[in-house]
Amino acid sequence: MATNKTPEFLPGTLDMLILKTLTRASNHGYGIAQYIQKVSNEALRIGEGSLYPALQRLLVNGWVEAEWGISETGRRVRIYRLTAGGRKQLAREVAEFDYLIAGIARVMEGA
Q1: The domain containing residue 30 runs over which residues?
Q2: Structure confidence at residue 1 (pLDDT)
Q3: Hey, what's the torsion of the CAs at 84, 89, 91, 96, to 10 degrees?
Q4: Among 24, 17, 29, 16, which Cα is nearest to 80's?
Q5: Based on the structure, what is the number of domains in the chain?
Q6: CATH code of 37's domain
Q7: Helix (H, G, I), strand (E, B), or coil: what is residue 42?
């Protein structure tokens, strides 16, 4: 379903998507956004105004760590890595998300 309007994320799903992306490998912000966009078949696009505040929030909570590195294009970037606490948080968020989606599905099915 292609529309001109980009769908909005459910509250909390951006953090979950970033954490999930970092389970694959450490990455810089632009790389995280590109991966999510590619895997979602262009359905999910994350702007800088959402991405970097989310990454900062994850850093403050201790769910990711960051260090300076060099991107594939030779630019200086922050490379983000998932922490053990981030893995636990991801498990909590996935469980909550699954519960929410199941509830929405029940309503949509007319249960």
Answers
A1: 13-109
A2: 47
A3: 180
A4: 29
A5: 1
A6: 1.10.10.10
A7: coil
